[in-house]
Amino acid sequence: MDFIADFFIRFLVQFQSPTLGFLIGGMLVAALGSKLKIPNAIYQFIVFMLLMKIGLEGGIEIREANLLEMALPAFLSILIGLLTVRIGITVFSILPGVDKEDGIATAGLFGAVSASTLAVAIVVLEEESIPFEAWAPALYPFMDIPALILAIVVANIHLKKQEKGEDTDVNVWNIIKESLRGSALSALLLGLALGLLTNSDSVLHSFYDPLFRGFLSILMLIMGMEAYDRIKELRSVAHWYAVYAALAPLMHGLIAFGLGYIAHLLVGFSAGGVVILAVIASSNSDISGPPTLRAGIPSANPSAYIGASTSVGTPIAIAVGIPLFIALAQIVF
To answer: Quick check: 72 and 269 in contact, CB under 8 A?
Structure first.
């Protein structure tokens, strides 16, 4: 009962937080037919700033971290990315009225990681004074890249079998290169490299830190507006996508929480680190994933996988997943 009460208290508190408030505000503005528009260039700049901050901080911490302690969480991140996509593909393969490529793309997007959800989780943990390894956000690419690659490889194998009726090779290295060249992962990896190899502490604390929360609030506003717009698109495809989008984030997060707890027992992975691992597993890519999947699986319907992710998956991961995993951590640890 204490867990349920704690979860609902945190759930209600989340609705008062600026991050979720801006997300809901964006949805309301769009629902009222406002002509408010935030240029895409500003959106891309904000995403770059957030990921650079996360990358710089992670790189600085990795420079001083025990790499053996990080190795197991990094391996588990790869495993979670692959496992969640495989589960999603299996689920969609048995559901009626679901196109194969659409199901694979949706599974890939929900196996990949949302930079914005990660940023919200970091703010919430800091507000609640829950410590975590500064390198924990750097687990992002370890989960994100394998998930996207697996989805694209499986989809391409399926399509080539349909075309030629036989097994054909898929150039995995090209897929990896395209994923790494994506704007979100490029920014995060650049930040990691600069934090790891340069004395970037001063620029992090004087420039990126003070702007982080303000930029995050604008990103949430943009995402809220897009979430409302995507609801219309989601209505045009099978309702199974909405059901999956509501359940998958919590299922993925619980799998990651369990594996993260094993890392806690074996290498001392912190409670906050386990929460971050669960949150990035519950998130669904809103920045790097859509363009990567559009290029890698062009036959898939974006209304299905992007609509499910933006209109249902992301709000569930932020509003329900974050307070759930924090409450669970306070009971388990």
So the answer is: yes
Q: Pick from 214, 269, 317: which is nearest to 75 by CA?
A: 269
Tokens representing 145?
């890249």
The pTM for the full model equals: 0.76
Task: Give the H/E segment covering residue 277.
Answer: helix 271-282
Residue 165 token pair = 């009726």
**What distance in Å separates the CA atoms of residue 292 and residue 298, rounded to the nearest whole number?**
10
- Please state, in angstroms and rounded to a whole number, the distance separating the CA atoms of residues 282 and 274: 12
Contact 143, 154 (CB under 8 A): no
Per-residue tens of pLDDT for the chain, all 333 residues: 565 666 566 556 655 566 667 877 888 888 888 888 888 888 888 878 887 887 787 788 778 777 778 899 999 999 999 999 999 999 998 988 788 888 999 999 999 998 778 888 998 898 888 999 888 888 888 898 889 888 888 887 777 776 665 555 666 677 667 666 766 667 778 888 898 888 888 888 889 888 887 887 887 788 778 767 766 666 665 678 888 999 999 999 999 999 999 999 999 999 999 999 999 999 988 766 776 777 678 777 777 787 788 778 888 998 889 989 998 998 888
Task: Please provide residue 223's backbone torsions phi and psi, each rounded to the nearest 5 degrees.
Answer: -65, -35
* Long-range Cβ contacts of 96-100 (<8 Å, 24+ apart): 96/240, 97/238, 97/240, 98/238, 98/240, 98/241, 99/300, 99/301, 99/304, 100/155, 100/158
Task: Check if the beta carbon of residue 290 is closer than 8 Å to that of residue 109.
Answer: yes
CATH no. for residue 177? 1.20.1530.20
Burial of 115 (0-12, 13-18, 19+ CB in 10 A): buried
Tell me which residue range forms the domain holding 143.
2-332
Query: What is the longest distance spanned by two Cα atoms in the chain?
Result: 59
DSSP 311: I
What total of structural domains would you count in the chain? 1
